[in-house]
């Protein structure tokens, strides 16, 4: 497989990349740089292509959000 080939990526990952790329372009990043950053973001969250290939099981996929939602620092509890 050629270097830079996206053959091992799922449809969902490719969709994710295109949406992220559009977001970067809206913020004024160039087309080529936006594409590079988008794939880097997909690789960071999904650990590369997810289609089977090669040996071994590999690592489990991290499903935690890339950004923390809700109130920063968590919920405040009242003392009694």
Show the helix and strand layout.
Blueprint: H1 11-26, H2 31-46
Helix pairs in contact: 1-2
Question: Can you give a write-up of this model?
Answer:
There is one protein chain. By secondary structure, the protein is mainly α. The protein has a domain at 11-46. The protein is built from two helices and no strands. Helix 1 crosses helix 2 (31-46). The longest helix has 16 residues, at 11-26. The N and C termini lie far apart (63 Å).
Averaged pLDDT: 82
Q: Fraction of residues in helices?
A: 40-55%
Give the low-pLDDT segments: none
User: How many helix segments?
Assistant: 2
The count of strands amounts to: 0
The N- and C-terminal alpha carbons lie at a distance of 63 Å
Instruction: Tell me the radius of gyration.
Output: 17 Å
| Element order: H for helix, E for strand | HH
- SSE class: mainly alpha
Largest sheet: none
Oligomer: single chain
How large is the share of residues in beta strands?
Answer: under 5%
- Principal-axis shape equals flat
Overview features:
single chain; 80 residues; mainly alpha; 40% helix; 0% strand
Summarize the structure.
The chain has 80 residues and is mainly alpha-helical.
